[in-house]
Structure formats: C-alpha cells, structure tokens
From TrEMBL, chain B:
GO terms for MF: ABC-type transporter activity; ATP binding; ATP hydrolysis activity
Keywords associated with the record: ATP-binding, Nucleotide-binding, Transport
The name this protein goes by in its record: 2-aminoethylphosphonate ABC transport system ATP-binding subunit PhnT
Native source organism of the sequence: Streptomyces monashensis
Pfam families: ABC_tran (PF00005), TOBE_2 (PF08402)
GO cellular component: ATP-binding cassette (ABC) transporter complex
All copies of domain ABC transporter, residue ranges: 3-237
InterPro entries hit by this protein: AAA+_ATPase, ABC_SmlMolc_Importer, ABC_transporter-like_ATP-bd, ABC_transporter-like_CS, Mo/tungstate-bd_C_term_dom, P-loop_NTPase, Transp-assoc_OB_typ2
Length: 289, 351
C-alpha cells in the first residue's frame, strides 16, 4: 500500500503543469485521474480479486497434485452437480417470476389504491429489505413446519417450500424500485386514459406497465442474481432433496473437505451470475431503457 | 350535448369547512364554449374534474345531455379531456396515442385508422404520426393531445388550462386553432378552464367567473366586460378603476366632484362603487372631469398608462401614446363619458 501511495504522489506531481495555465481546467488530465483511481483499484484487487483468483487457482489443483482440468471433469461429470445446477437455475427463474408478478401487483395496490396506511406499508418494505433472509424461513417454519401453527405440511422441505420462502423474502426487492417508478408516473396520464374510455386492466397494461419496465428489469435482475446465490433460505428450510450450487459448495468444502471440487462449483456459480448480468445489460440496452 | 351542474358541492377529504366547490349551478348549452375564469384556488378546475368524473360531489348532480352521470365512472362518460401537461403516453407513437381511446372502445381496426388520420388532419399533425411525443415541441404535443381527445368524437370537450404551458406567441396561434376547431365542430360543447382573461374573452361564448369556490357571475364576454355585476368580475375580466362613490340624483359624487352617470334607480344617498375601464378614461377637458396628480407613468408602446391620484384614490388611464407625456407629480385632468361608467353595489374591493 505504501508503495502505491508513493507512486500516486509521484504521478500527480508530474501531471501538474507548472504555473497553472487556464487550459489545465478543461483539458483532460489522464495522469491525475489515474492517480485518483489507483488506491481504490489497489484495494479492490487486494480484498476482492486476489481471493477470487485463489479460488479459481484452487479449482485447477486436484488433490492428487499438479495443475490439471481433472477437478472440472470430475465435477461436470457427476450427477449431483448437474442436478444442483438445474435446481439452482429453475428455482432462481421461478422465484424471480413469482417476485415480479407478486411485487407488481402489490406495488400497484400500494401506489394506486388509496387505503389508510398505504404509506406505512411502503415504509415497512424499506425495513423488510434489511431483514436477514433466514428470518423469513424461520417464520415460515413456525407457520407450516412439522410442529407449526397451520399444521405439518411437508412441502417446506421440498423445492416448493424454498420457492415460497424465496418469493416471500425477495418480493420487496422488486417492489422498492417499482414504487419509486410509480411515484414518478404522471397521474394526468392515468386520468387521460380513463376519460378516453380505458378501464383499470387496460390502463395497467398500456400506461403503467410500459413505464414500469425499466424498474421491473432492474428489480428482476437483482432478484435473479440474489436467488442464484441464496444460501440461508435453502439451509434453513432443511430441505434434504434441494441442493443448489451454493449448498453444493458448502457440502464439498465443509463436509467433504473437497476444496478443488468446491472451487469448481463456485467458479461455475460466479460464471452463471456474471453471464446472466451481462445478458440483462444487453437486453435492457436493446429495449432502449 | 349540454352540460349541467346542479348545485354541485365538492369537499376534499370530507372537510366541509373548506369547500372546493360551493353549490355550483352552471349550464353549458349544446355547442357552446363556456370559459371558467378565476384565480388559482377558485374552484374552476374542481368544477371541470366533477364533470369529468374524477371528483365526486358530496351533493348535487352532474348532467350530460340531460342524463344524470353523477354516479358514472370517468371511462363511461365519453368526454374528451385536454390538460395543461398534455399527458401524452410517452412510449406510444403519435398515431398510437390518438388511437388509444378508439382501441379502448373496441372500434373496428379499419375505422381506427381512418379516424386517427382524420383527427391528426384536423389538428395539422398528420405529418408527425410516426413520431414519439418526446420528439415534438410543446405546441405540437398539445395538438396531439387535442387530436387524441377528439378522435373518440366526444360531445363534450374539457380543456384544463390547455395553453398555460406554451409561450406567448404559440398561445395566440393555438387560440386561433381552437376557435377554428370550434367552428368545424359546432355540436361539441366545450368547458374551458383558464386564469387568462384574454383566452376567455377570445374563445368563449359565455364566461363563468369563479372566486373562492363560488360562481361570481356568468354571462357573455361583452356583458361581463361592458356591464359587470360586481367588483370582482369587473377587475378580473379586463382591468377596472373601482372607486367608492355616493349616489345622488342623476349622478354620483366622488372626491367633491359631481359625476353624471346612470344611477339606474339606485336610491339617492346610498354608497356604491363606480367602475370605469382604464382605456375609456381620457386626458384633458371633457365631461365628468376629475383633477389629480400623476403618481406613475408607464410607456407601453402604443399607449401610455397613467396612475393618477384623485383624492387618495388611484385612477388608471390608458391613453394613446403621448407626444409630450406628463411627468411624475404633474397636475392633470381626467374625464370619461357618462355611459362608459357602471355603478356597482358598494363593497370592500382591492381592484
């Protein structure tokens, strides 16, 4: 770090023109900008990229020694991995779809149906976002668990239980940007649509939804990535049959001490997340958002 | 189709102490342009929203063409509406915006195309059909909003300050456009909310002047301008000199001068307010002379406006551009013709 700081000062010293000419304010100063950018980049590299690189490196180091693609071949060939990959992806996609649908409907009601306490509900959503994810699962256990209030439905330990918990927990992540988008909407547009003869469903479909698309895309992509990497909810439902990629990493690293295998799964998980994010960026740019 | 408001009272949030509209009675004849004129907060927009169905009166009825629509939701009233902010749908093209109402009414596809073309033609926006609203200027957007409202062929068109967001030059052009549209659509009743007396005087067949949630007076522009019934109407519809006078026989006395004006049967000795339009006040000798001192003089190009202090009251006079205008502090004489003055009931006014 000291070295980086030293370099920063040196670069800055060189970039400053002697005698403060007037053009220096408007002309681009690549050296000065670089000097400002270096410390954060150095921190990022030290605390984030370096450990990540270690994980990637470890994934090429089988227990038998040397550097090879064997861990990848082993993991990709195993049925457990493929099952976990499939479970992760469909759970994440289904949860995201559920969150978008439920979040859109709830945000519509909160934003456009005047009822006492709507403001309070909107504020509660902000608080809800700060809750830990396992709390929801714990609460669901009290309701539906084997000794729960509603009775012992066994579905909590199935993928459907995980789906329910994820939708419950992540829906507010969709509602937050949606409520912000709805508050920007010109009510005169809704009234114009109404006086032109449109009823509520048409107004929602043709006036509100198009305006809310960027917010839906933002909330949906956030939820999708969060669901792909969700660990606490799956762990707390105690669903034995539901193994997602993060669970597989946990199992391999902590329970089986198979570090190369765990790292391979982790790398795949990261790739899927980054890939989906890239896809989202491309799609949203195409949509002109 | 005519519009009738039958003692409509509106209170927001159920608060009866501060009424947004206090038992308004108003009739707009079929094909008539009625301007609702008043300062902000006078209840004129509330009245329009009651007709559109966006506010529910706590009492009274709204009738369209003789049919009670008080309980009908806005989408079943068949009203065209144009607002100050245009309220176009930003993600739809101009032609899709205009087609919105027709689609909502399940009009046949071939007819939609024809009626959209017709509405855009009428507002002079046919060349912009495939643009998006953000690619248009304010005046063009307002034309599209008017086309969208007209496409459903409403019998009633509500206009809520439609020109207030436009600059002055565009405004007079659009005013002429609206007058032309009214000539082309003689059966459409229009309710036109504005705070601009020029718009009201130019466009309206009749003007309803509103203040403090109440209807102050209603009549043709000429009636309201030439013989206003109260001081508020006199000062809001065109400027007015309003001075307190004492009624005599065949005239009034003001500032020690006897003025000849029609007293119209008002009892002698009563207090009243005399109303004279500034442009009807002349400078120099003449009938009904008033002596005063110039307190302020403004050159407005074609005219000079003089603020003359007469016995503690300010009298405004708009006179043709003067070659040698008086200067501040000069004593001057003003006059006006007896039949240019109107006698109003006495009231405290700040005209």
């Amino acid at each position: 770090m000291a070295e980086a700081a030293e370099r920063t000062r040196a670069v800055r010293g060189r970039s400053r023109p002697p005698g403060g000419s007037r053009t220096s304010n408007t002309a681009p100063r690549p050296f000065g900008a670089l000097a400002w950018a270096l410390p954060p980049i150095a921190l990022l590299a030290l605390f984030f990229l370096y450990p990540l690189a270690l994980v990637v490196q470890q994934s090429f180091r089988p227990d038998s020694g040397g550097t090879s693609l064997r861990p990848y071949a082993d993991v990709l060939a195993s049925g457990a991995f493929r099952h976990a990959l499939w479970t992760t992806v469909w759970l994440a996609l289904a949860s995201t779809a559920g969150c978008l649908l439920l979040g859109f409907l709830l945000a519509l009601v909160i934003a456009f149906v005047p009822f006492p306490g709507a403001k309070g509900v909107a504020r509660f959503i902000d608080v809800y976002l700060s809750f830990p994810s396992f709390l929801i699962t714990l609460a669901l256990l009290f309701l539906y668990g084997s000794t729960g209030i509603v009775g012992s439905f066994q579905f909590l330990t199935t993928p459907w239980g995980v789906l329910l918990a994820e939708v419950t927990y992540f829906t507010p992540f969709v509602m937050r940007p949606l409520l912000a988008a709805f508050s920007q909407l010109d009510t005169a547009q809704l009234e114009a649509a109404c006086s032109l003869g449109a009823r509520a469903p048409r107004i929602v479909r043709q006036v509100i939804l198009p305006e809310a698309l960027p917010a839906l895309a933002a909330g949906g992509s956030l939820v999708l990535v969060l669901c792909l990497n969700e660990f606490g909810i799956v762990l707390f439902t105690g669903a034995k049959g539901v193994t997602t990629l993060p669970m597989l990493v946990y199992g391999k690293a902590i329970l089986e001490s198979d570090y190369p295998g765990a790292c391979v799964v982790a790398v795949v998980n990261v790739l899927i997340s980054v890939g989906l994010y890239a896809l989202y960026r491309v799609v949203s740019r195409r949509a002109g958002a | 189709m005519g519009i009738r408001l039958d003692s409509v009272t509106v209170a927001y949030d159920g608060n009866v102490d501060t009424l947004a509209l206090d038992s308004l009675d108003l009739t707009v004849e079929p094909g008539e342009v009625m301007a609702l004129l008043g300062p902000s907060g006078s209840g004129k927009t509330t009245a329009l929203r009651a007709v559109a169905g966006f506010v529910r009166p706590v009492s009274g009825r709204v009738l369209l063409g003789g049919r009670d629509v008080t309980d009908l939701p806005p989408y079943r009233r068949g009203i065209g509406m144009v607002v100050q902010s245009y309220a176009l749908f930003p993600h739809l093209r101009v032609d899709e915006n205009v087609a919105f109402g027709l689609r909502a009414r399940k009009t046949a596809r071939s007819e939609i195309r024809q009626r959209v073309a017709e509405a855009l033609e009428m507002t002079g926006m046919a060349a912009y059909a495939r643009r998006h609203p953000r690619e248009l200027s304010g005046g063009q957007q307002q034309r599209v909003a008017i086309a969208r409202a007209l496409a459903i062929r409403p019998d009633v068109l509500l206009l809520d300050e439609p020109l207030s967001a436009l600059d002055a030059r565009l405004r007079s052009g659009m005013l002429a456009e609206l007058a032309r549209l009214h000539r082309e659509l003689p059966d459409v009743s229009m309710l036109y909310v504005t705070h601009d007396q020029v718009e009201a005087l130019t466009l309206a067949d009749r003007i309803a002047v509103m203040d403090k949630a109440r209807l102050q007076s209603c009549g043709t522009p000429r009636e309201l301008y030439r013989s206003p019934a109260d001081a508020f109407t006199a000062s809001f519809v065109g400027g007015a000199n309003l001075v307190p006078v004492t009624v005599g026989t065949g005239g009034v006395s003001f500032a020690g001068a006897e003025l000849k004006v029609g007293t119209n049967g008002v009892a002698a000795g009563a207090r009243a307010t005399l109303c004279v339009r500034p442009h009807l006040v002349g400078l120099g000798q003449g009938p009904n002379q008033l002596a005063g001192v110039v307190r302020e003089i403004q050159w407005r190009g074609a005219t000079h406006r003089l603020y003359v202090e007469v016995d503690g009251h300010t009298v405004m006079a708009d006179v043709r551009e003067l070659k040698a205008p008086p200067v501040h502090g000069d004593p001057v004489t003003l006059h006006f013709m007896p039949d240019d003055a109107v006698l109003l009931p006495a009231e405290v006014s700040h005209g």
